[in-house]
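Thread: Modeling a multi-component assembly for a lab meeting

Hi all, long-time lurker, first post. My supervisor asked me to bring a structural picture of a complex we are working on to next week's group meeting, and I have zero experience with this. I have the sequence lines for every component (536 residues in total). Could someone generate the structure of the whole assembly? Inputs are pasted exactly as I received them:
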Amino acid sequence: MEQEPLLLKGNEAVAYAAILCGCDGYFGYPITPQSEVLETLAALRPWETTGMVVVQSESEVASVNMLYGGGGCGKKVMTSSSSVGIALMQEGISYMAGAEVPCLIVNVQRGGPGLGTIQPSQADYLQATRGGGNGDYNLIVLAPNSVQEMADFVGLGFDLAFKYRTPVIMLADGVIGQMMEKVVLQPQQPRRTNEEIAKECPWASLGRSKERDINVITSLELQPEKMEERNIMLQKKYRSIEENEVRYELIGSENPDVAIIAFGCSSRISKKVVQIAAEEGIEIVLLRPITLWPFPKDAIRELSTKVKSMLVVENNAGQMFYDVQHAVEGHIPVEHYGRFGGIIPTPQEILDKIKTML
Amino acid sequence: MTQEIIIAGFGGQGVLSMGKILAYAGLMEGKEVSWMPAYGPEQRGGTANVTVIVSDEPVSSPVLSEYDTAIILNQPSLDKFERMVKPGGTLIYDDFGIIEPPTRTDINIHCVQAMRLASEQKLAKCFNMIVLGSFLKAHPIVSIESVMKALRKTLPERHHHLLPMNEDAIRQGAQLIK
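Re: Modeling a multi-component assembly
Sure thing. I ran the full set together rather than chain by chain. Output:
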């Protein structure tokens, strides 16, 4: 638990960071490529130190409903899984969005559809950024591209979840989850006391109190007028998130011919493409969305005035591609490069694709 | 300085842990490192490989299409990775079980008889450290002292009595490279 740099897998970093940021509970079910989150938590035994609860649930459906209960009590609760498991959780995630329950969900994506493969993929972009379950809602979607960010985004995820009373999803992938890198962890934060939760989360279900009305956590509203009111309030909240929480990073040439738009593991590979292209005299800039929702569409729109074309690199059949096209509004050509089913493209094949666009 | 390395062999030969110790030693020296395993349904006897990058600069892609150095411990890995070494790069391979040796002439090829040394010197459990010693002789990107520190950090304490044997293996491995 020291603050000197450690060599950790992304999944291990999530587990360490959860304990250190004062997380109250983790509920999860093993699935490759993210099982190290649960394994590491079990090995670190935080219930003996911070009092954090760690439960290996009987299924992903159980995990997400444990989140609903814990989050509804104002506790910092989280789960992690991989693609197929996250699909099972969608009902609960939609309930939490509707009932405004904060929580953190980590998806270390693998290839699909269905059981697919255990190898890395980014094919859950649309599921994560469009909500994923039923109804009109959005989740804040954070896309780490390093082990350090997998650690940092646990604390950030909880901060945003409580600030906006919404589920937050960390959309990682098998590469970032399985690779080891240097990571510097934050110092231990204490878990919040029940008194602090009562003060900071007046909506939380903490038992009856004479000082306030009963707090009800529900997504159900049978009167359509009231349900519409709730939807309008949720949409207002989402607009405020769009206004305040867009995060992205620009890397590479200041005078580029082509822009690459990529997130997660694809952005790491694209960083290498920027380097090897520069050696051949090809100027590329990489825009990496850090929040996939809210999407940095203004930044991409602005970038489209400085380059001749854009390439969206993602390990799927073209999902973020639609958001980039929408941002660019047809001003310049936008192309897509992706591999599927657990195949990770090499920097060279991406550069070869770019050469066809020059 | 950036060294992009692939280490490949059979599962159980210590491929992943060799990579981890190398990466950890780099970390000890304040370098940027990454360790990316092929994490498929690998098992003892199947193939295993790991990409390790040790650099003075932040590491971009943890997944690569060509390498400065390939450390190869079986024939299937040699078949796959020989062509992925950059021209002028290094290929270190253990000749045990190699039927078709490498043929390239534009890279530096070192054949080390690490498996033979391991069985002769009763260092079978340190086979991967012999190979690491050979690599560090060819490319001294981290010091043996840092490797020993990394071993102390990564080995559970109950195995610490094996540290001198590992150090011996690294030093003997270094002598396999001329």
